Amino acid sequence: MATSSNYWEDLRKQARQLENELDLKLVSFSKLCTSYSSSSNWDQQKRDIRSDSGSTQDNVLIAMTTELEQLLANLTAVNDKMAEYTNTPGVSSHNAALMHTLQRHRDILQDYTHEFHKTKSNFFSLREREDLLGSVHRDIESYKSSSGVNNRKTELFLKEHEHLRNSDRLIDNAISIAMATKENITFQRGMLKSIQTRVTTLANRFPAINSLIQKINLRKRRDSLILGGVIGVCTILLLLYTFH
Hints:
This is Golgi SNAP receptor complex member 1. Helices cover about 95% and strands about 0% of the residues. The chain is mainly alpha-helical.
């Protein structure tokens, strides 16, 4: 039992040591990625100066990425060994405490893995963006040098390209609004048809209601005719009185 307990303590020591190393490495890795992000925001005149040092920084970050992946793999292996130990016959009396400790180490591993992948993803996204901007800049410089005095044309071309992109966005927004309006109108038309169908069904089902509605419509029509006749007579009498 003592040997088994010592084995568990050795695994815990290995796990804590790997966790401490990962914590320090992840802090350094995050700081390097932050400095990489800051350097990528320099203006274009400093971009060429940064290119040589940037390649060195890329190599350091890639090396740290590999090292962190190895540390995470080692910590995962230690956690797996701890999980196997909890299933070993003879340790059931301490199983609850062991499982609690194992779960805590698993949570730490999950947090470190999530943080590593998040920082790594940000780094590679920044590097791809920087490579793309550098490629575009080189293409523009090459075009300028080959065309001599065509700087004005290049600027006009870039402005026109930006105008086209803005136009595309406006067209997409207009299409989206039109589609939403069409769906809304279709929905309202369906609702009106449904209401009309229900009213017709109700009228057919209850003839007395249908007859009452018809009488109301006839009375309204009669009242309208009477009111129109009275207004017409009054208008004629008013005109006769005015001109005589």
